[in-house]
Specification:
The protein contains 4 helices and 6 strands; from the N terminus they run αααβββαβββ. It has 151 residues and is an alpha+beta fold.
Length: 151
């Protein structure tokens, strides 16, 4: 009986350690906000063309674990995407999440208030599972800059 108990305890400890490692691989809300602010400052210093190119660089300074910058104009055209460069130049205004919620329309609505968070469901790039995601956006001139986190 003691061997079974010890085995269970060891297994639970391994799960706890693995869970902590997975959590460490995920960006936090504070890190997402900081990345948006860093991105906005980069645009102001370097201009949109250079900034968007850097945001699109999968090995650049604006990609960290599961955090990356995405940029949309107010018509839903993707201007930069740190995780999927194939989206750049496409109008994604009508894209919906697993529940039928308009994602880019929601991001634009929040950005038009200045800044804030928008919640939706999206496939996790690492696990491929549909997960709850929240994206922090700030409006900057005629675009919004956003970074999302998986909850």
């Amino acid at each position: 009986m003691k061997k079974i108990f010890n085995g269970i305890v060891i297994g639970l400890c391994a799960l706890a350690i693995n869970g902590a490692a997975v959590a460490a691989d995920k960006g936090t809300a504070d890190e997402a906000v900081a990345m948006v602010k860093k991105g906005a400052a980069f645009v102001k210093t370097n201009g949109k063309e250079k900034a968007f190119a850097e945001f699109n660089n999968p090995k650049g300074q604006f990609v960290d674990r599961d955090l990356y910058i995405m940029v949309y104009d107010m018509e839903g055209n993707n201007k930069a995407h740190g995780s999927n460069q194939r989206l750049v130049g496409k109008n994604l205004l009508e894209i919906k999440d697993a529940d039928g919620k308009y994602i880019v329309k929601g991001l634009i609505e929040v950005a038009n208030k200045g800044k804030g968070w928008f919640d939706y469901k999206w496939p996790n790039g690492i696990t491929k599972a549909i997960e709850h995601k929240s994206t922090y956006v700030e409006k900057m001139d005629d675009v919004l800059i956003g970074v999302g986190i998986y909850k």
